[in-house]
């Protein structure tokens, strides 16, 4: 793959590029969009060829053969993540976000509490609120190496007794923390102690850096399969979110029946484009692509962190996976309005505001490194200059 090839995403219905000025005031003609978690790379041939076959055949009506997509999911999970998944465990949803929202509605009641470890992907809070549930935020803490850790002793005092479900990001968004076995075990103990279901968003599971190993929750925590739900999709790995296809995977028969009783009311079925793209992605060609992609994203991280570590008062958290860098501006002494002006106004970079990711994110911005190396270098140079004259 030619990841360095610059692609023009303007005026092609790319939300990341076309909505940048409206969302952040960063001019479209000179801004760098580093906000929404979508990558800028040219689509690989195996995806383009799959879509071209659809166009050539010209059938856009009712379709059959979605079981081939489910077989591809099974192959991917077994081959890439050492997880044997049965087809009847899987529900196909309109993307991972829809899967999370549906799970909240199916397995909790209005007013129930949902536990999250913050700061975390902002859509967790949005989905919880829209569902009429409440969010019990458990702040992550930084260790001596600057990595996020969980503090379950401190969390006991934050529980209200209304919590029925824990929603986690693994690997963690932002900053790409890869949770270790001991941490997952502690999480499982916490869920059992407080009688919580555990819903694991594993959408970034493919994008771990060299030397790191993502532990699929269902494999790492067999002791809580009766309370475990996994949600995932190919969208973040392969930039196919437009296919609106995700999967809710529930190994336990009883819990799966509870989910199905709600889910089946809506007669949800897969869509042709998303099914086709996912099947093409979860393939040997897709596996080779991901291996190259992981190496390239690791290089982008190295370049960006090396540059930001030299900016006085700016601290970038070490990453172990994903392409979503987490940068703290607290050391600059600036308030949120001031450091945001330096990024949006002076550097002309659109980054995700950290305060929208919950407690602990107030002094941060999240930067999407899923772009060409030249753009990462340009962003680093712009930030260096923007903060040089403060």
From TrEMBL:
What GO molecular function terms would the record report? cysteine-S-conjugate beta-lyase activity; pyridoxal phosphate binding
Where does the record place the Aminotransferase class I/classII large domain?
A: 56-383
Q: Which cofactor does it need?
A: pyridoxal 5'-phosphate
What EC number(s) has UniProt assigned to this enzyme?
4.4.1.13
InterPro entries (UniProt xref): Aminotransferase_I/II_large (IPR004839), C-S_lyase_PatB-like (IPR027619), Class-II_PLP-Dep_Aminotrans (IPR051798), PyrdxlP-dep_Trfase (IPR015424), PyrdxlP-dep_Trfase_major (IPR015421), PyrdxlP-dep_Trfase_small (IPR015422)
Superkingdom to which the source organism belongs: Bacteria
Listed A to Z, the keywords are: Lyase, Pyridoxal phosphate
Which family does this protein fall into?
Answer: Belongs to the class-II pyridoxal-phosphate-dependent aminotransferase family. MalY/PatB cystathionine beta-lyase subfamily.
Q: What is this protein called?
A: cysteine-S-conjugate beta-lyase
What is the gene called? patB
